[in-house]
Design goal:
homodimer; 322 residues; alpha/beta; Rossmann fold; 2 domains; five-stranded parallel beta sheet; four-stranded parallel beta sheet; 9 strands; globular; SIS_dom (chains A, B); SIS domain-containing protein (chains A, B); Fructosamine_deglycase_FrlB (chains A, B)
Chain lengths: 322, 322
Amino acid sequence: MNAKKTILEILEKHDEIKDVYFLACGGSLVDLYPGFYFIQAESATMHAAWLPAREFTIAPPKHLGKHSLIIACSHGGNTKETVDAVRFAHEKGAAVITLTHNKDSACNDSTMNPIIYDWAEEVDEKEKPQGIVLDLLNELMKAQEPDYKLYDTIAEGLLKIDRIVKAAVKKVQNRTWVFAEKYYKEPFLYIMGSGASFSQAYGFSICSLQEMQWMDCCYLHSGEYFHGPFEVTDEDHLYILLMSKGSNRIMDERALTFLQKYANKYEVIDAEELGIGEIDDSCVDYFNPILFYAMSVEYRKGLQDKRRHPLDMRRYMGVVEY
Amino acid sequence: MNAKKTILEILEKHDEIKDVYFLACGGSLVDLYPGFYFIQAESATMHAAWLPAREFTIAPPKHLGKHSLIIACSHGGNTKETVDAVRFAHEKGAAVITLTHNKDSACNDSTMNPIIYDWAEEVDEKEKPQGIVLDLLNELMKAQEPDYKLYDTIAEGLLKIDRIVKAAVKKVQNRTWVFAEKYYKEPFLYIMGSGASFSQAYGFSICSLQEMQWMDCCYLHSGEYFHGPFEVTDEDHLYILLMSKGSNRIMDERALTFLQKYANKYEVIDAEELGIGEIDDSCVDYFNPILFYAMSVEYRKGLQDKRRHPLDMRRYMGVVEY
């Protein structure tokens, strides 16, 4: 993938991008959240929205048009809601970039500036969806905003993140086994995160646990926890806390302090302890979710083995009509 | 409250509003989501963002300034995160409107264009937060967008919604008792909704059940359900489905069809059956959540009585330091 080339070609045709819409379904939607968060926090020229693909088609924004960029992701490349949304946006004159794993899919269409990614464990994080999106947005910001200051640090981060993730994967393997050993019969758990990493609390819940392990759980924002959800906390409830490094860490730390006082069963996945500090402070917020995604993969593997529930087993998805 | 006067005064000082930020915590954040959804779908001149107040202060958007409007809500009026965010935005030159129940609070400050609402059951829905926000945004759209077409239908809807809600409250009372009788021992449940009403799946979970009943549950988007979470569905799992009338109903209906086939325990709260059809189709999307909120109040009352868990009982909120 040549992010710079893709972006420059789009800017040549569309002059200026004013809106970036991040559209997908399920796990692919999760992958797009950090990009949305990045544009919302960093861009002086663009606005961003992040929403389920079908909701976009049902209630399309009035700003949609020539100066819009759609970033859509569909792992299999044929998810109807996503393909419909992308085609609809393209008809309205918007620029489109699709990410897919499947080169033989509807998403691999030249009108969509398709990017085909590989998903294997050994692939560099920079070449997987979250890395690709950050790379694209970094180029877009550089090309469009003269005052943009994060270009070099994000480019450096994209070079560093793979090594950080792979070292962290090794580091946590034993603790994922211990976690599974202790908690594999737990009826229910809460997963918390904040900032760009809120997406990973969501993805950990709906993909890694609900979909792949048929385990009941709920995702919570670590800040919002104190405005309602914390009332269920007691020594019997299980929590996983995704602690980001960066500006939103104070929300996660507050949740940790509370859990230490009132809970008994909680697992802390701390990006700082896992080495994310090698990324520059100015942009580490946007790299935490890449690390947390890899950690959710390790934890679900630990659970799969202990619970004897294969990660790929499905009873509905791709099995029945719905 | 005189919504028109408030909006015209703001427009006089700020010329034009380009960004509307909806900021709050917990239940108050829930109340602001339909307004966010409305601006995102309907406005040709404004963009909207909806986020936990602290996250806004931690990662403030670069667009924040003279042409921004902050709509913030704090029931008690002193929620630190919300007050901090509002003061920060005010310093940046943004227009601010605060909604609060407490006239003796930090939110009742003349720089914040405060609106004091009453919360009692008999108060007209138009005078409660969701109604107030819709009224304000309707005036803002009318004042700012010559092509805006929903003004009269929304104004009519605001006159009708109170009667609809009060009739629905009477209609569901017995079924909330039956629901509580059947399910009060349920260890866990999922609550689904979509469109503007996704906020009510969230609020039902984090406020009515997690906070007020210490009950474990998870909120899901009815569209996203099919991209992961539906794998946990079986005859033992309990679901509450908020079925909106309007453009996003097709997502809720799809979820219902699936539940009818693969689940056994599910409660449907259908806005159409509960009379929301009196509101014009062009804007009913923005009224469903007002009805669903009132329904969540009835269901939690039913659960309170059967579970003998007082709705106002807290073990942490306002009780301990955190």
